[in-house]
Amino acid sequence: MPNPSAPKLNDLLHWAVENTTTNPNPTSPEPTSITAHPNDPQGPFEINFRPNLETNSNTSVVLKQEPIKKLDTSILDTILGRTDAIRIKELINVFENLEVQIEERIQAGEGLEELVQDLDNANDLEVLGVWPKLIKLLEEPNDQIQFYTCWIIGTSVQNNPKSQLAFLKYDPIPLILNVLNQSNDEETKAKSLYCLSSTLKHAPSSTHALSSFINSSGLESLNTILKGPSMNLRRKTVFLINSLAMQSDSILNSLRSHHLFKTLISSVSPTLGIPTGLNGEGLSQDED
């Protein structure tokens, strides 16, 4: 049962209104105020703090808006490491740059070859636009650059159909054969044979890679290598011939018609030995 002596709600409201004091001087500033200055270069806001109005103590605090700093991505690179795609782009830029010292270019070529051992990185060469640059580097008249270019290409397309198709779109076989035929450096010739083997092995007929090889006098080039003095180059040529012979009957017939098997047998026969050695002065096979 409600208490008749308890204060009523209306009475409490009247008491609250009557006992509320207002600022007698509405023009005087409040102890603390915030003023907006949107066009002030010192900052968009100003805070005025006056803890003691009677002594006219006036302390102003201005908040300055600090400029937004750009994120330093080099710090993230240091912590997380650069992605392989970024490294590939950086390395190919150095490798193709004629103004860079040859030692730095070679180092970049070594780094690229190491990266493309990963199939995903090799497949990224097409996306990153690296293939046209490597094609152009095959024509650079520098044995060391051609050596690393053939090595990078051979590693990228070896047992990698996706990269093989991407590379063969540029009709590169004649350029690789030019390296094989024109270079005087045995190691560069060896890498060009490696590049040819990787590129031609199981090449889809739609790419016309084998036709390009035959039409560019590729079989004649192999015949010449088999008659040459280097046993190392002969071995690599035999490996390539074996790979080609197993691909189709038509290429097998082409190998026969160009007398490659006869030359091959002669090159390894102790009785029909083709001159070997650096100057071709010997008939026995040298194990270089």
Question: What does this protein structure show overall?
Answer:
The protein has helices spanning 9-18, 73-80, 84-95, 102-115, 119-127, 131-137, 143-157, 161-168, 173-182, 186-200, 209-215, 218-226, 231-245, 249-257, 260-268, and strands at 32-36, 45-49, 59-63. The chain has 288 residues and is mainly alpha-helical. The chain has a domain at 73-185: Leucine-rich Repeat Variant. A three-stranded antiparallel sheet has the order 1-2-3, with no helix packed on it. A hairpin with an 8-residue loop joins strand 1 and strand 2. The chain is elongated, with a radius of gyration of 40 Å. The termini are far apart. 26% of the residues are buried. Residues 278-288 have low confidence and may be disordered.
Question: What is this structure's SSE topology?
Answer:
Blueprint: H1 9-18, E1 32-36, E2 45-49, E3 59-63, H2 73-80, H3 84-95, H4 102-115, H5 119-127, H6 131-137, H7 143-157, H8 161-168, H9 173-182, H10 186-200, H11 209-215, H12 218-226, H13 231-245, H14 249-257, H15 260-268
Antiparallel strand pairs: 1-2, 2-3
Helix pairs in contact: 3-4, 4-7, 5-8, 7-10, 9-10, 10-13, 12-15
What's the gist of this structure?
The protein has 15 helices and 3 strands. The protein is mostly helical. It has a domain at 73-185: Leucine-rich Repeat Variant (Alpha Horseshoe).
Quick one: biggest sheet?
3 strands, antiparallel
The CATH architecture of the domain at 73-185 would be Alpha Horseshoe
Percentage of residues in helical conformation: 40-55%
Beta-strand segment tally: 3
User: Would you state the CATH class of the domain at 73-185?
Assistant: Mainly Alpha
